[in-house]
Write a structure and sequence with these properties.
Elements (H helix, E strand, L loop, with lengths): L7 E5 L6 H10 L2 H8 L4 E6 L1 H16 L19 H18 L8 H15 L11 H28 L4 E7 L16 H8 L2 H6 E7 L2 H11 L15 H6 L6 H7 L5 E6 L2 E11 L17 H24 L1
């Protein structure tokens, strides 16, 4: 792949800050424009850990339907039972990346079983109990049936992407992290971006850059309510994060702190396995909303809306390319 193109972009922000809208806008660009003006390959593939949050909530709902307590969340409107599951999500992202890298595919007929095994294995890696394997076999079967359609759809998509691989593509890895409202820094593990980035595979860290969509926590909460569509709760563009989660897990984030602590400008420093990685980092300032229009039908986008978003994204990606090229 050309040195002019970014290979891996870690796209991060508080919920409803505009991450998914940025992705949707980039997808809407002509591939040649995306490459020459944004340093992004004509073909893009994305990994979003929100899909696994949705899987976890679906497992919990199947358990509740069977008269059993939830495993992952305190309730449908509350945070994780075990905060270590923030790390579980990153290990699942790493697995998805390895599947893309190695073209590994799986039997879709066993999609629910595979998903439950993966959830348990990823939990083990962060020191959390593999609770799904301990379920009564009949209850486990009920859970598998409850998530089968969702798991099959995801695995089909994952297999297709794995068959195509990463050659000649830009990979976007998307996730959101934070800490309680009013927290002081550094945020303690397993909260925040410092912990999440440290768990990423070192081969990802070796070449990745970070695009941070900057929105204040209060504005993130407002937009989270604004975008909510109760008829489409699993949508990346229309889902809503519960208020208790917004306040307890996304009341602040540590990106500004991490940039300030790095000994190289425009980077986030990540220490892992005795090594140090400097991730080129740019902030796309979306405090004054430049992205929500992307949720509307394409034919309603105005030239002025497009121009503002396009130029600011172009500037952010140019910064990332410049910093990475200088390393």
């Amino acid at each position: 792949m050309s040195d002019e193109v970014l290979g891996t972009i870690i796209l991060i922000a508080l919920p409803a800050s505009g991450k998914s809208e940025v992705r949707a806008y980039l997808d809407a660009l002509d591939p040649a424009t995306r490459e020459t003006e944004m340093h992004i390959a004509p073909q893009v593939v994305a990994i979003d850990d929100f899909e696994y949050v949705w899987n976890m909530r679906s497992v919990d709902e199947a358990l509740v339907k069977g008269g059993k307590p939830r495993i992952f969340f305190q309730s449908s409107e509350k945070p994780f039972n075990d905060p270590r599951d923030w790390g579980t999500l990153i290990h699942l992202v790493n697995e998805d990346w390895w599947s893309l890298r190695t073209h590994r595919t799986f039997d879709v007929n066993n999609s629910a079983k595979i998903l439950l095994r993966r959830l348990d294995a990823a939990r083990l890696r962060v020191g959390a109990p593999p609770a799904l394997s301990a379920l009564d076999p009949s209850l486990r079967l009920d859970v598998e049936l409850g998530i089968y359609e969702q798991a099959s759809r995801k695995l089909n998509q994952r297999n297709t992407r794995a068959e195509e691989g990463l050659d000649g593509k830009t990979l976007i890895i998307e996730f959101a992290r934070g800490g309680p409202r009013g927290a002081t820094f550094p945020l303690p593990a397993p909260l925040g971006y410092a912990h999440a980035l440290q768990l990423l595979d070192p081969l990802i860290l070796k070449t990745a850059v970070v695009l941070y969509v900057w929105v204040a926590p209060e504005e993130s909460r407002r937009r989270n309510e604004e975008r909510a569509d109760p008829n489409n709760p699993g949508s990346t563009l229309r889902h809503s994060v519960p208020l208790d989660v917004m306040l307890g897990d996304y009341g602040c984030d540590d990106v500004e702190y991490l940039i300030g602590e790095s000994d190289k400008p425009n980077t986030i420093r990540v220490e892992k396995n005795g090594g140090v990685f400097y991730l080129p980092t740019a902030r796309f300032d979306n405090r004054s909303d430049k992205t929500s229009f992307v949720r509307r039908p394409r034919e309603t986008w105005t030239d002025d809306e497009i121009a503002v978003l396009h130029e600011d994204l172009k500037s952010a990606f140019e910064t990332l390319h410049t910093v990475q090229s200088a390393q």
